[in-house]
Amino acid sequence: GVDSKGNIWSSVTSYGIFKYNGESFTIIDEEKGLYNTGVVSIFIDEGDTVFAGTFAGVDVVYADTVIKSYL
Fold first, then answer.
1. Cβ(2)–Cβ(19) under 8 Å?
2. 32 CB-contact burial (10 Å; exposed 0-12 / middle 13-18 / buried 19+)
3. Which residues contact 17 (CB under 8 A, 6 or more apart)?
4. Which one of 5, 18, 19, 45 has the lowest number of neighbouring Cβ atoms within 10 Å?
5. Per-residue model confidence as pLDDT tens digits over 38-65
6. How far apart, in whole angstroms, are the C-alpha atoms of residue 71 and residue 50?
7. SS3 of 10, please?
8. What is the pTM for the complete model shown?
9. Residue 14 near residue 37, CB atoms below 8 Å
């Protein structure tokens, strides 16, 4: 998905979430609080909150930080 700033959000199963800002990648994985790196879907709301569906539940990401996990 693409957020309002033009960042591209994607995932690779077992590696977490990748954000590309046009110049570099940011990886959001277990070290950054992602409960499960098996991300299978991404939804971005109008406030740029990212909801990542994983094999274990849903992680909520805002400003490159996992703020909540629903298991």
1. no
2. middle
3. 9, 10, 11, 27, 28, 29, 34, 39, 42, 50, 52, 61
4. 5
5. 999 999 999 999 999 999 999 999 989 9
6. 16
7. strand
8. 0.90
9. yes
